[in-house]
Amino acid sequence: MDALNFKPALRKSLVPLTGAAKKKPAFKFTIAKAETLFSQNVKLKGGGVVKVTAKRNSQETGNIKKIGKLPEQKDQQWNCEIIQWQGNVHTKDPVILNSNFDKLYPGVIYPYESIANGDYKPLPFGRKPLSINVDGVHFNKAAIVVQNPTKGTVRQAIVDIVKTKTGEGSARSYGQKFEVYSEEDLFVRTGGSGYFLTAGGSHQIDYKNNSKSHKYFLEVYQAYYTISVNDNVHEPTDFFVTKEEQPTAKDAVAAKDINPNWVYVDSMTYGRMLQVMFQSDESFDEVGIDIEGHADFLFAGGKANFNMKQQSVLQNTSVELVAVGGNPVYSAQAVNASSLQELKERIDKYFTGHDDEQPISYTLRTLDQENVGANMITDFTSRQCAPRASKYAVTWDNVQCINADDESGGEEVKAMVRIRAFSGNGKDILDEDKFNNPIIINNSIKQTGLPIPMPWTFTKGTEDHPINLNSGEQYALGKKIVFTVDKNDDKAKIGIRADILEYDGAFSGNDDFADALWEKKITEITGKEIVRLMCTDDDSRIQFNFTVTPVYD
Q1: Rounded to an integer, what distance in angstroms lies between the CA atom of residue 396 and that of residue 383?
Q2: Of 104, 263, 393, 456, which is the most buried if we count CB atoms within 10 A?
Q3: Is the whole-model pTM more than 0.85?
């Protein structure tokens, strides 16, 4: 995998962001509009840096691409793969830049730098009464006017609205779910929230140790309701007392000083949210644990059908869990679950509570009524380790005709592979099923000087019954060989040779393709490897596809 392209899913609001809900103000600003509201480098706990730029009307795109690979780190117990990445994520949502974001409330107005530095100091100007309304479940009182909007009065108004609700929140919804490569990766994919609640908070999430280096982030939330500033509030003079209106008011602001780049909290969504980080010595993907299915089992009540190997991996997986909202007793019980099934049961219990909501999402707008999003850029290094295995399986998955140069448009072939393992002293390691016993016997006979052809581990196709391949076609094989290797032998390696014999008929003669070779030391195999070998003859191209997998007892 060289790149990840994704759409950031930060929003947890019940109110869709249309960008056209608010009218453009008729007010004539003296201060010029800035497309970039603020930019800073956010330094993370582990030393990484993310450049965050707050922007107007940002789009939603995510790209994380591989830019390099460093030499593997290895010892007798672990093999570690180290990859350099570059991330560039644009989101329509504001980014959480510190752990003080709970100080936000609907209708509050800030210069953006006050949000960025974490002091959250509202502008010191007199405010006019503010109309706020609720979307979500049914309420007897869906709107209220706050006469003197401050943190205390707005929150009291929300309490007064919530007292009139007649139903509970929506169903559970998924937020982000992905494999996490670093603190920086976690930050840009969750817009800061996943970082500040987990790795940047009090949790012990380490990206430098060999153990537990495979990490998976799952998020689920339940939105109860969204409190928004009423759509009829769209002029700066709807927010502030101006000197033009009240010349004697000490806290009035002059119209010429009103900045279109000031931002206000347009909406806040309240509910409850769980963020779960799984940390494992082994890759979930390599043992066939699907993160989507895993999320469905834990959060949506789906069925889990894990084989013995998958159960073993999950049993040895550590879990860090963060709850926002919800009953703290239930969230604490989920943290201390002793098994996957018990964790699921306690997560279910967490979502049975009532009247336990907290802010889980918010939106920002500028005073000239444009949405505030962000761009996050970072370079980071992932370090994923796996215990050095004592066995390695090589599966010949299939052969595929990439291009056929025969006039018929197809190839009639015999496909051959020789898959071998060698100890550090160069001796063959016999496989578990002894497929390579003829090869080892052949090596002994060759020492006598007799010219005997080297056998193949697997072949498919004969002159009477060849494999028929047209351009683009694939022929499935699924042949597997397993080797037991001394994990302390740093020079032990696995090699694959592939070859094709094309049958062209009695008058044309057969074509022996150029063979292809792959080999790698076991110290360099840090996880499942996809191996592709191309055999060629003139314009004909036939590709062999293999999977090399460490096997843990």
Answers
A1: 28
A2: 263
A3: no
